[in-house]
Amino acid sequence: MNKVTLIGRLTQKPASYSTTSGKTYCKFTVAVNRDFKSTDGERKADFINCTCFSNQAEYIIKYLDKGSLVGVFGELRTSSYLDDITHKNVYSIDVITSNVEFLDKKKEEPKNNTEVLQEVMEEDPFKITDDDLPF
Question: How far apart are CA 77 and CA 3, in angstroms?
Fold first, then answer.
């Protein structure tokens, strides 16, 4: 069985690509903290390359950025290519995602001046009730 589950933060903004048929996909790297500290007392992380396809790739490109916390579900894929300089095979392992969960809280959009003015007018700091009158 080939199943991967990761929780970590994006190391940079996802990179957007298109297939020859015009479908969008993206690549990103997730920094996943290890459960233990190294001998020097530092907490280490693994940097896992991920690839996502179709509609989810478009959402990732649109809404995620460097530092975004994500849950990644998928499977491992190995690939290789011939390095032009060293003329040796280079091997890589990537996670091909089946689902990416956005784990950060949704950021509030900044309010414009009209919204702020409406809130102030609704509060009405000058409203006087009968209880406020001295007589």
Answer: 11
Task: Tell me the pairing of strands 4-10 and 15-18.
Answer: unpaired
Can you give the residue range of the structural domain that contains 69? 4-107
103 strand-pairing partners: none
Residue 132 lies in a domain: no
Model pTM score: 0.71
Phi (first) and psi of residue 100, to 5 degrees: -130, 120
CB-CB neighbours of 50 under 10 Å? 23
Q: What distance in Å separates the CA atoms of residue 74 and residue 107, rounded to the nearest whole number? A: 26
Q: Is residue 69 included in any domain, yes or no?
A: yes
Count of structural domains within the chain: 1
Q: What is the pLDDT of residues 33-87, one digit of tens each?
A: 988 777 777 888 999 999 999 899 999 999 999 999 999 999 999 999 999 999 9
d(CA 27, CA 78): 15
